[in-house]
Amino acid sequence: MLNVKTDKEIQDAIYTVFRSRESERVKAYSVVQGLEQSHEIAVVIQLMVQSEISGVLFTSDPITGSYTSMIGNYVHGLGEQLVSGEANAYSFTLKRPKGKYEGPIDFIKYASSLYKYATKLEKEMGSSQDIEWTVAKGKLYLLQARPITTLTAGNLDTYEMNYSLMGDELWINTNLAEAIPDVYSPFTWSIGRQLDEALNFIPGYYIFSGNICGRPYMNISRRVSMITSLLGRNAKGALKLIYDIYGELPEGMSMPLYPFSRLGVIKVMFPIIMRTTKSTLQASKNLPQFLKETPERCSKLREDIKRAQSKEELLSLWKEELQPYFLKAWVSAGAAAIKLSNVTALDKKLTKLVGGEDSNTLLSNLSGSSGLESLGPVIGISKVTKGEMSREEYLRKYGHRGLMNMKCQYLTLWKM
Questions:
Q1: What CATH code would you report for 49-151?
Q2: What is the pLDDT of residue 244?
Q3: Residue ranges of the alpha helices (H) in 139-261?
Q4: How far apart, in Å, are the Cα atoms of 120 and each of 59, 125, 384?
């Protein structure tokens, strides 16, 4: 409702907007989106801006999902003409990463401000935005914004997830499919998402929690884009290593790239890398003590969970104790992996000296035991049936293991 001036007109406008929730259009939209047909509505009242230029801006292509450019169009006068199609719109683009303007000359002086505001808004909201804006008396205003509805990862309530719909990017599951061959449970996926949020230093790069129809995928486009923006022509060696690990692209296919700016990537990455390096070094130093204390700590956490009387208590326990401990454990696992790389180097040297078979035999017994740890759950069952191990001892030692091992490890953290 536009150009409302008196108190009576404002009151009538509020009632008109409020009643619109029962309109056929809203009901049809609710059915398509899987929403409750009867829901509350907020009525927003704003100062009227007498627009000289009105437009919309999509921070990524709403059809293809490409991030290469922001796409916009505008009309002279009020934005109603644009929405209704009453007036022909002028189109323009703002090319990433610097916002280079391509379009009619009469909007060029506002282009850099619109790009700056849109970039900041997109970053703060965490997704591509559909923005309505206007110009009045030489000043640019942002009127409203919402996520681009065609670029959505899915529905958390129903767990219908597909991250490939979020944009024009390449997703792969090489190595991930072998580690997690089954469908992610929602809880397991949520843990992976927290790892990505806590440890990743590439914006929009999902290692553990890229989700396509319940299965894990990695956003390889973001990784390659980051390397390309940082190293430029010198990126060939790093990209070759990635292709050696994950495989070459099919002939005739190109990698969709996100147009990061080098400075922007450095600003995001550097503090996180410094923080991660510091925590990894500390975890490496404390690793023996951490491993020694872990069984007792897990027993205590199990008891704390049993004593919880409500979901609020469980949530508090997760936020204050379990989640920090989980992230600490993950950093410790990273520190252990670095130590393990020394064993890999030793493996190569031993293989040259004594051959692959003897090298494997020697390294398999580094712990001083003649058995392989991976066979523990199977051999343990035999020990239980023979009376050599109690059921409680078996569950304490191997209760977190299972067919889909990574999933069971995550679930164990919740059951501890």
A1: 3.30.470.20
A2: 80
A3: 176-179, 186-199, 220-231, 236-246
A4: 11, 9, 60
Task: Give the DSSP letter string of 326-349.
Answer: HHHHHHHHHHHHHHHHHHHHHHHH
Number of C-alpha atoms within 13 angstroms, CB side, residue 39? 11
Numbered ranges of CATH 3.30.470.20 in the chain: 49-151
Name residues of the chain where pLDDT drops below 50: 407-416
Q: Give pLDDT tens digits for 74-104.
A: 999 886 766 666 678 899 999 999 999 999 9
Per-residue confidence (pLDDT) for residue 345, from 0 to 100: 67
CA dihedral 166, 169, 173, 175 (to 10 degrees): -130
Q: Are 104 and 90 in contact (CB under 8 A)?
A: yes
Cα 203 from Cα 123, distance rounded (Å): 9
Output the pLDDT for position 85. 66
pLDDT on residue 416: 34
Tokens encoding 327 = 């992230």
Count of positions (residues) in the chain: 416
For residue 145, the model assigns a pLDDT of 95
Q: How far is CA 225 from the centre of its chain?
A: 16
